[in-house]
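To: structure subgroup
Subject: Chain for Friday's discussion

All,

I'm putting the inputs and outputs inline so they're searchable in the archive.
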Amino acid sequence: MKLKKNYRFDNKRPIWRIIPTDNGKLVIEEREPEKKQAYFHCLTLDSGKKILYNFQLDDKFWVGIEAVQGDTIIFHKFAKPDMPKHRGIFAFDIMKKEIIWQNPELIFLFVIKEKLYAFKEKFEGRYYYSINLLKGEIIEEIGENYDLINSLRNEALMGEDNKGYLFPDVFEADSVADNRANEVIKSLKNDFVISGKVEYLLKNKLLMMSFHEVNSKGTLNNLFKAVDLSTGKYILEEVINKETGLFLTDSFFVKNDLLFLLFGKTRLVIYKIIN
């Protein structure tokens, strides 16, 4: 088993979101809170070739991504600056590099295939709609049918679960079903002065781990290690955060046969998992 480095992405700006799509693209959101700037990018998932780079909406900061479906990014704005409440739907075509439709009054809920579900807040409560994702036309006024919306939301969540994502868990004693993986994680304490928890992810016979080691300066180094359990050999060892005083989590995940590994806050490296 091998991990082959495909490419890296690094603009020296904090990476906020990493979204691999089902049609071979990678959408990345960067944010600079001090400068009040947000940047959006799209690369080819397999090679890192730039499709969209340093894109900004008319509002340079008070925007965000709700979802990515096919070649469409669904952006939102905010009801008020500095407030978390989303407002508005702005559908952006990645290949055309333009907003194809917008509705500043609706609030996004979820997407199922090419139907987008949203609502409008009224005095008496929420009023729901289904909308054509590509055209922005209202397909159906669902009204106040909360039961239908909850059922559809569950369907959307089940669809997300089947998209090939794997995220790390926190290791607890004997919490890993694979005995060899348990032994490897426990053995780390013999080789490193570990502070905090060990995060791990197991994909077939590939064990990936992230943990914090106390260094000679009394600060923490965040280490990532990947082990081929079939041979017992380490196939990747990286320091992903140096001399930090914080416990940093959520630094890696897997989608299908790709590992996404974040170094610090600004550098993303994509590896191909080869059996």
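Points worth raising on Friday:
The longest strand covers residues 233-244.
Residues 168-249 form one domain.

D.
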